[in-house]
Amino acid sequence: MDTLLNRYRNITVLLLVILAQLVLLAYQVKNNSDVRLIRFWAVTAVTPLARTIEGLRGGTDGFLQNYVLLRDTRSENQRMRSELGRLKLENQFLKTELATADRVKALEAFETRTPSKMIAARVIGTATGASASAVFVDRGSAAGVEKGMAVVTPDGIVGKVLAAYPTASQVLLATDPTFAAGVVSQKNHVRGILKGLGHGNCRVDYLQNEEKVDTGEWFYTSGDDRIFPKGLPAGQVIAARPGNPFQDVTVDPSGLAGGLEEVLIVLQGVHQDIPELKTAAAPLYMAPPLKEGQTEPSPATSPAAPGHPPVLTTDADKIREHYQQVGAAQGHKFGENLPGSKPADFNYQPKPGENVSVTAKPGLEGEKRIVGDEGTAGPDSPSPPRPRPAGEQKTPVSRPKTVTPDKPAAPPQ
Amino acid sequence: MRYSDDRVILHNQRDTQISRFKAWVLFLVPLAAILFQVYVPLFFQFLAYLELPLIVTVYFALMRRSPIGGLLVGALVGLAQDSLSKNPLGMFGITKTIIGYVAASVGMRLDVDHPMIRLILGFLFFVFHQFIFWALSRGLLGQQMNFETQRTLVLGLLNAIVAVSLFHFLDKLKERT
What we know:
Chain A is α+β, with helices and mostly antiparallel strands.
C-alpha cells in the first residue's frame, strides 16, 4: 500500500488539493454564500498595501514634478525659460487640481440634487483576472456600505457593490457579463434588462423586435431591480438591430465613460422621474387651462358649443353655413337626392325668424349638422334598416335619438 | 547565459537541475504579481490582460521541477487571486493547481532554460489556463461564457513574450549552488 501511495504520490496530492477546492466551491455554490473569512483577510492585507503604493506614487509624482524636473529645467535652460517651465508645470498641476475639484464639485452637486443618500468613494484597485470587470473602492462596511448597493457617478450608473469589507468594497462594473439592471428607454418607454458584455459596452435584453428603440436614445434605470433607484442614466444606444428572438440593442454605459476615479455609493435610494425628452420640433400651441369653477371651454375656444352659434373664422365656413341654412329651409338634403331631382335654390334668403338650427356632432370637430323643424336632416337621422344576415343577433339595438334644442329627448321608460 | 541550444528534451534524471529560491522570493514575487494585477491596471488598463500570477506560478513550477511544490504554489496563488476577485473561491485555485502540476511535470522533461521553450510554454499554459477556467465556469458555475479563441491566442502570445522577459529577470533571484 505504501509503495502504491509513494508511486502515485504526486497525482494523489493533486487530486486531494483539487477535491478540497471543489468542496469549497460546492459549499459556496450550494449555500449561495461566500467564505468570507478568507476574502476578509486577503482584502484587509492588500488594501493597506494598495494605499501605501498609491501614497508612494502620489509622493513620488509630486517629488519628481516639484523637485527633479524643476531642477533639471533650471540647469538646462536660462532663467526665463526655467521660469516659464516652472509656470507651465504649475499650470498643469493646477489644471489637474482644478479637474479634480471639478469632479468633486460635480459629485457634490449631483449628491445635493439627488434625493438619494449617497457617499463618495475613490477607486483604489481592480479585481484580479484578465477579464475582470470589478474594482475596489476605499469605502467599506465601516462607512455604511452594504452588499448590493448601487454605485453611480453623475454621468450614470457604474455597478453595484459585490462585497463590503471594513475598509474597502468590491464593485461589480456594469460591463461585467454577470451584471444586470432594469432599464427603461427615455423616448419610447421600452423596458428591458441591461447586461454587460465583458468589454466596453452593454446590451439591453428582452426587447421585442416590435418595440421601437432608436440609435442615440437614452436608457434610464427603471427601479424594477430594487438596486438602482429609478431615473438614473444608464447609457445611450449605439446600435439597435432586429434579432432572434429579441432585439439586439447595444448601449454605451455613460457612467464608465472617461475613466473611473471617484464614484458615489447609494446608501438609501429614492426613485426619481425619468427626465422628459426635449425635442427640437416647433413649439406646440396649447390652449389656456380652464379657470376655477369653469366646467366647459369658453365659446371662444369651442367652435360649436350647444346652444351657441359656431364661431366662424373663414369665408369658406361662412359660405358652408349659408348653404346649410338654405338647404335646411327648403328641406333639401345635400348629397342624398337622386340624380335629376330638383336642386336647392341657392338664391333663397332665409328669414331672420325662421326656425333653423345648426348643431355639431360631438367628437367630430368642425363637422356640423343642420336640424330643421322636421328633424330629419343630418347623418344620424334614421335610415332604412339593412338586411340582417342569418346568424346575426336579432335583439333590437336602440339607436340614439337626435337631440336638438327645439326637441328635448323623451325620458327613458 | 548559455542555453543548451541543441538539447530541448532531457533524457535522464541527471540532466534535471532543480532551482532553489529563498523563502522571501517565494513569498514576495507571487504577492507582487497579485498586487500588480490589483493596482497597475488602474493607470494602464491594457495591462489588465497580463496574467502575472499565472506567469509566476508557471515559473516556480518549471524551475522547482516538483509536481507537489508546483501544485501547492498554484493553489495558493490561485486562492489568493480568487479572494480578490469576484469569483467563488476555488476557481482560480483549481485552475492554477492543475497548471502548477502540469508545468512541474513538463519541467522535468524539457530544458526550460531555453527561451524558445519558455515562449511556447508561456503561450500554451496561458491558453490552457483560460480553457480550464472557461470549462470550470460553464461546468461548475453554469455561466454561459463564450470561449473567445482569437482573443485568447493573441493574449497568450502577449503573455508569453512577457513571461520570457520576466523569467529572465527571475532567474537572477535563484540561489547559486
